[in-house]
Design a protein that fits this description.
The relative contact order is 0.11. The radius of gyration is 21 Å and the shape is globular. It contains 14 helices and 15 strands. By secondary structure, the chain is an alpha/beta fold.
Length: 377
């Protein structure tokens, strides 16, 4: 089983915190969609005979595409790939794009999951971040998607935002829960170099929240969402029972995936590949039949490190049996030896030959995972 990720780089405006590859050059959209379709055709052998289980349109802002754009892309996918076992097709969308008319068009397409980038319901913070929507638009978008028949809705939140308080974060969580969505992703704000927000930080126009507040916000999120019935299935992700993101989970469980579009990454089990982060170079390469792709051959140690980082993040944990089968006895023993101190302190738990982060360990997960990694000479 495998997944397909399609990067749609277009945005009306850029949010001040975002460092994902995107562009506001909407005049190139038609040429880009044609190039994306060609890449899907050119790289159809990448996944071998693996049936496609999930498709994910990410961005950028995929909801900048029209129904006709999507129909063209789906036409190619349905022709070139085995979709008999495809269970989840996700569209990332901005709330202000989700008008009743546009949602009706989406409901006529193969999408069965909508992921809405809300970030916060605080109007002042939305304006600071240069988000295009209001809190009312976000709430209305969720309700309109439900009315249109979507039964799998996810929303994105951010915490650790400038000026955030326990009260404002609690209000965001309460509003999110009240929407009765199936899935919530919540990420701590990162001040990425090169973004306008990072420049504001350097000029002391905004301040980062302190580490204690970050921990408190994270703890509040876990408590509020689990009390509301959500499963904490991955460090930053919560879902109603069995409504986890199947596509994102494929990244964490080591499944193959093909990434198409500028800056998109692919993984076939032994190598990582990624497209150039340039719209012009991407389109030119595809049109000439010489895609601008870089490839990294993965050593056994690198694959082991990836396995540790991805599997420990999830509620499914790190299977020692699978570790031994894929990477050998030496790395299995190395992992167990380095995990022992955390097992002794209760930050890791060992059940059914599988390592799990404990409720306490999840707060120091980065350090724990780092200590289990193999450091190559």
């Amino acid at each position: 089983m495998a997944g397909i990720y399609l990067h749609i780089p277009f945005c009306k405006t850029r949010c001040i915190y975002c460092d994902f590859y995107s562009t506001t050059r909407s005049e190139t959209k038609d040429r880009y969609v044609s190039a994306l379709c060609k890449e899907l055709q050119q790289r159809k052998s990448y996944l071998g005979d693996e049936p496609v289980e999930t498709i994910y349109f990410g961005g950028g802002t995929p909801s900048q595409l029209s129904r006709e754009d999507f129909e063209k892309i789906f036409g190619v996918i349905e022709k070139e790939y085995n979709l008999e076992q495809c269970r989840e097709i996700t569209l990332e969308a901005n709330p202000d794009d989700l008008t009743p008319e546009y949602i009706k068009e989406l409901s006529a397409l193969p999408f069965n999951r909508i992921s809405i980038g809300i970030q916060t319901f605080n109007e002042q913070t939305l304006r600071l971040l240069k988000r295009r929507h209001t809190a009312d638009q976000a709430i209305r978008a969720v309700k309109e998607c439900r009315l249109a028949g979507f039964q799998n809705i996810s929303i994105d939140l951010m915490y650790g935002l400038p000026g955030e308080t326990p009260e404002s974060w609690k209000a965001d969580l309460e509003q999110a829960v009240s929407l009765n969505v199936e899935h919530i992703s919540a990420y701590h704000l990162i001040y990425e170099e090169g973004t306008p927000l990072y420049e504001m930080l350097l000029k002391h126009k905004v301040e980062e929240v302190d580490e204690d507040s970050s921990v408190d916000f994270f703890a509040m999120m876990i408590e509020q969402l689990t009390q509301a019935g959500f499963q904490h299935y991955e460090i930053s992700n919560f879902c109603q029972p069995d409504k986890y993101s199947q596509h994102n989970s494929s990244y964490w469980t080591g499944k193959k995936y093909l990434g198409c579009g500028p800056s998109a990454h692919s993984f076939d089990g032994n190598t990582r590949q990624w497209n150039v982060s340039s719209l012009d170079q991407y389109i030119e390469g595809i049109e000439k039949g010489i895609p601008a792709i870089e490839i990294e051959e993965l050593s056994n140690a690198t694959r082991y490190n990836d396995f540790v980082i991805t599997s420990l993040r999830t509620m499914w944990g790190l299977s020692l049996s699978r570790l031994k089968e894929e990477f050998g006895t030496e790395l299995e023993q190395y992992c167990l030896e380095n995990a022992q101190s955390y097992l002794n302190t209760g930050k890791l738990e060992l059940r059914n030959n599988t390592l799990y982060l404990s409720k306490e360990g999840i707060f120091t997960s980065d350090g724990i995972m780092s200590d289990l990694l193999w450091v190559e000479d």
